[in-house]
Amino acid sequence: MFVNFRRIRRCQYVQLMTTCLVLSVVMVCWEQLDKSVVSHVKSYSYRYLVNSFTYINKSLTIPREQARSFSNFRYLLNHPDKCAGKDVLLLLFVKTSPENIERRNAIRSTWGNETYIQNALGVTVKVVFALGAPQARKEEPSWTKRFHLQEQLIHEDRLHGDLIQQDFLDSFHNLTLKLILQFHWTHSHCAHARFLMTADDDIFVHIPNLVSYLRDVSSRSVTDFWVGRVHRGAPPIRSKDSKYFVPYEMYQWLSYPDYTAGAGYVVSSDVADKIYQATLTLNASLYIDDVFMGICGITVGVSPQEHVYFSGEGKAPYHLCIYDQMITSHGHVEDIYDLWKTATDPQVKQKTSGLVGRLYCAAVKLALLCKPYYFNTYPCKAAFL
């Protein structure tokens, strides 16, 4: 039998080169694989098998005097009588940055219009904006930039009377301070509000649907109420290139506690008070505010509940069948006026009601929401509700 040794050697060479290439690719990609896949496996194992978050409370508990440093900031703008003498269904805190005046005006003209809510929906909802002190641009002297922007904020607040500002630098790494500001202000000035909502200034809130939902919840005297888009078993990001990088010194565990996406969530008044109490004894140096909210939650024994029509980081599809049950949608700035007009049109309810309308919308939502590549908005199960 004739054997072609040259061909065998050639095949072996090709196999060797292929193996080396595969190993090289694996070695190059391993760091990324470890960050995205392995970290999630570890996180879910910790969350669902070990589930030992009791140590977080102990390790992050600090003396009250030290914890006060995260909340003891001077108010630059304040309206302590905003809720006084009123039966407030919802206190709605919008997290905003000093320069985002157009976003705030858009909210005041659409879903955050207190007069519309009172007249059209018959309830009192108070809308305020939480912000810190302005930052300076690189091309301008720090004091000049901050002075002019602060003057604009003072003028804006004189017109609208809805800015709640403290003297900490308004930045991504101070978002937890902004969260603490909201719960402390609520405790001091609007504790009687039945619900507290915290939201970003680039989300859309379908306020008629939200009010209807909260009225129903309120009629049942629900306690320990905390709803939104829930993240479970999320791992800390250890890559220094990420905006959400968290070093081991700041948070050493493999998984975060359950928390709701910071874009928008609602808590009942009793939960708001419990979170306030938690902030009095916790180290708030963790600058990811929605995760810190989750830590406060486990400290006081409150868990978030999923609501399928609270969006995460994604934008909900534009369709009247979605508007019918929409609560929040994330990522709206330029389109907020058009979306408000379309989503709150009375014809939405008319066209989606009745047997035919419900069957039509069930098919539409199935097509829109049950796609394998559609992430961070309403889950597929929303199509069946």
Automatic annotation (TrEMBL):
User: Could you state one GO cellular component term attached to this entry?
Assistant: Golgi membrane
Does Transmembrane helix count among this protein's keywords?
Answer: yes
Q: Which Gene3D superfamilies match?
A: 3.90.550.50
Where found, per UniProt? Golgi apparatus membrane
- Protein's membrane topology: Single-pass type II membrane protein
In what pathway does it function? Protein modification; protein glycosylation
- GO BP term (any one): protein O-linked glycosylation
Documented EC number(s): 2.4.1.-
Give one GO molecular function term.
lactosylceramide 1,3-N-acetyl-beta-D-glucosaminyltransferase activity
Q: Which domain of life is it from?
A: Eukaryota
Q: List the Pfam families hit by this protein, alphabetically.
A: Galactosyl_T
Q: Which UniProt keywords apply?
A: Glycoprotein, Glycosyltransferase, Golgi apparatus, Membrane, Signal-anchor, Transferase, Transmembrane, Transmembrane helix
Q: Which reaction does it catalyse?
A: a beta-D-Gal-(1->4)-beta-D-Glc-(1<->1)-Cer(d18:1(4E)) + UDP-N-acetyl-alpha-D-glucosamine = a beta-D-GlcNAc-(1->3)-beta-D-Gal-(1->4)-beta-D-Glc-(1<->1)-Cer(d18:1(4E)) + UDP + H(+); a neolactoside nLc4Cer(d18:1(4E)) + UDP-N-acetyl-alpha-D-glucosamine = a neolactoside IV(3)-beta-GlcNAc-nLc4Cer(d18:1(4E)) + UDP + H(+)
Q: Which family does it belong to?
A: Belongs to the glycosyltransferase 31 family.
Q: What name appears for this protein in its UniProt entry?
A: Hexosyltransferase
What gene does this protein come from? LOC115022040
